[in-house]
Specification:
Two copies of one chain form a homodimer. Chain A has 340 residues and is α/β, with parallel strands linked by helices. Helices cover 45% and strands 16% of the residues of chain A. Chain A folds into three domains: 44 residues, lambda repressor-like DNA-binding domains (434 Repressor (Amino-terminal Domain)); 124 residues, Rossmann fold (3-Layer(aba) Sandwich), CATH 3.40.50; 134 residues, 3-Layer(aba) Sandwich (Rossmann fold), CATH 3.40.50. Chain A is built from 13 helices and twelve strands. Chain A has a six-stranded parallel β-sheet. In chain A, strands 7-6-8-9 form a four-stranded parallel β-sheet, with helices on both faces. In chain A, helix 5 links the parallel strand 1 and strand 2. Chain A is elongated, with a radius of gyration of 26 Å. At the A-B interface, helix 4, helix 5, strand 2, helix 6 and helix 11 of A face helix 4, helix 5, strand 2, helix 6 and helix 11 of B. Strand 2 of chain A pairs antiparallel with strand 2 of chain B, so a sheet runs across the interface. The structure holds a DNA duplex (30 and 30 nucleotides).
Chain lengths: 340, 340
DNA sequence: ACCGCAAAAGTGAACGTTCAATTGAACGTT
DNA sequence: AACGTTCAATTGAACGTTCACTTTTGCGGT
């Protein structure tokens, strides 16, 4: 019984015109008399015809699909970016194929391999486990792509905030509150954004003549950036002597993980220890106390990335290869004057 | 210059065989002598040939793509499910197209419309803004699909936990701690899971002869389930007199939002008010205090959904249409004996 | 009347793959 | 030596569109 899905041929037959005419009506190309257009449209409606995207892609050699290669979709930062990418893509008639790397180099390789099959017209990459390899692969396979939070040496356009500056501002905020012993919980060590935020932290300390520098590096990629690693890092910091009066964490999730360690140690935020995060995820405002953090314009970043990618796919070379968007320090209740 | 991507024809020419032979080698079908297979493989390697997925789909009439229609990817529950769906799909050689509904009926309709174009072989739906319409559409367009957290009256397979029972267990946990005034922050009212969790709450009260019943319903879909709505709901509850000594929130996000309202009111958790959440998202364990909650087996749910969908796409009718997976009460520091 | 020209519609091929049918060769059996 | 069977490989068509051309129609100007 199951009525086979109708094709253009069926529509053409019913409307008494050629297949090509139907195609023109559907795509709004060529010139069609109003009379026949009506007939065709009625036929389309009657059969509930929908053009086959596969056949169309076959012919046009483009799929109107973009890939979204994301380090870890369960990370709130990434899921917010994913939402915005999907939204921007949708607004431009593109669909999104989700490649979730799950923090695994293996999965990243597989995903890139899958992308190289040519199913997608372009690729948005949100961070990367193995940056060098990824960039090499993109170049070799000539995959049109745009990076978010993962800078390129070559010609792949990148969207980021100025992470060095942001790290500087976050740290300086603590310094201005009188803190002299400020620690830093760094993100995954090989990642550019970790390095840049760390660099900003260091520069701020240096510019203000502070010599106390304590950094916890996180090495296991699969643990990085999340609650658990922030928790473990903070415990490590609390064992140090003298212990810091303030901490700048490279992500909000790690900051909130650090909260846990601080509270467990019987210390109070911000009376005993001030905490600054990074990202301003939704949970930051609802943490106890609300988290002071650096707000990244994730939606704008994603929109900008998609816009750039669309331009690239349109054949235009990117004019500017590095798009820097503004961040913002959001002061909440997790930071206060340094204790005496 | 840009070397056009090679096709089977190129491989065939180089290897000195027919196109069909190449096809057989690539797909491992038919019988090919080891000698020619070697030759073909070498040619494939030399040209860096990759089969064109579009052309393949054109012929086979299947895309090895599944759609993931998700209410709101920024919701941690949904992003965890998305991760698991993508992972399970990947493991079975499928790719995932992400349709993010963003809590909007409009977007849900558009996404379903897009799915109906026939790009995907099947669809996983994680909750729905307009359940009735969605189910009707699926039936009309004969879209193979599986639901998560969104029950069907008809024949669409569904994966869920027993939300009534879970709501009951969560409430009973509070009752056992001696609480007599227990409020409930409900999720989006039209959603099945909201209704079921509420039902469980009510039954537990009834079974234990408690008459204090206070429910905050959230109506605006775009606000539901998140921190902000939990916060607002809790403020409302705190204005009531007598105020509850315990709250069961229909999601962890709302529970954590409620935390904020409780702390702002100068009350302590759990000494003054106990809180139970639902879902056991990662943040629950790192909240201050750690949140007692109902753990849902999201990864299993997603895996089960994908497995069912694959079976469906394989032409097998679903044997069981409702898959109920086990939940678990996780007791943490947000619940304690009722104050005197 | 005739020509020219634009608008409207049609035709056949092509996109890269797989399917169904077929050929050719190799080999053992009677 | 003729025959059937299996294995190896080939051939031509088809999947549903769109593209590049061609044909037909209609219409105004000289």
């Amino acid at each position: 019984m199951a009525a086979k899905t109708p094709t253009m041929k069926d529509v053409a037959r019913l409307a008494g015109v050629s297949v090509q005419t139907v195609s023109c009506v559907v795509n709004g190309t060529g010139s069609i008399s109003t009379r026949t257009r009506q007939r065709v449209l009625r036929a389309i409606d009657e059969l509930n015809y929908r053009p086959d995207p596969i056949a169309r892609s076959m012919r046009t050699r483009q799929t109107r699909l973009i890939g979204l290669l994301v380090l870890d979709i369960t990370n709130p930062v990434h899921s917010v970016i994913a939402e915005a990418v999907e939204s921007a893509a949708h607004a431009n008639g593109y669909k999104v194929i989700l490649y979730n790397v799950s923090n695994s180099p293996e999965r990243e390789r597989e995903s890139l391999e899958a992308v190289a099959e040519g199913l997608v017209d372009g690729l948005v990459i949100v961070n990367s486990v193995d940056r060098e390899r990824t960039l090499r692969f993109l170049a070799e396979e000539e995959i049109l792509s745009v990076l978010i939070d993962c800078q390129s040496d070559f010609s792949v356009p990148t969207v980021m905030v100025d992470n060095v500056r942001a790290g500087y501002v976050a740290t300086e905020h603590l310094i201005r509150l009188g803190h002299r012993r400020i620690a830093h919980i760094s993100g995954s060590a090989p990642m550019i954004i970790s390095q840049q935020r760390l660099e900003g932290y260091r520069r701020a300390l240096a510019d203000h003549g502070l010599t106390y520098e304590r950094v916890v590096y996180l090495m296991k990629a699969s643990w990085d950036w999340d609650f658990a690693s922030g928790y473990r890092a903070m415990r490590e910091l609390l064992e140090g002597d003298p212990r810091p009066t303030a901490v700048f964490a490279a992500s909000d999730q790690m900051a909130i993980g650090a909260y846990r360690a601080i509270v467990e140690a019987g210390l109070r935020i911000p009376q005993d220890i001030s905490v600054v995060g990074f990202d301003d995820i939704e949970a930051a405002a609802y943490a106890t106390p609300p988290l002071t953090t650096i707000r990244q314009p994730f939606t704008d970043m994603a929109a900008s990335a998609v816009a750039t990618l669309l331009r690239l796919m349109d054949g235009q070379r990117a004019e500017e290869t590095l798009h820097i968007l503004p961040f913002e320090l959001v002061v909440r209740g997790s930071t206060a004057e340094a204790p005496q």
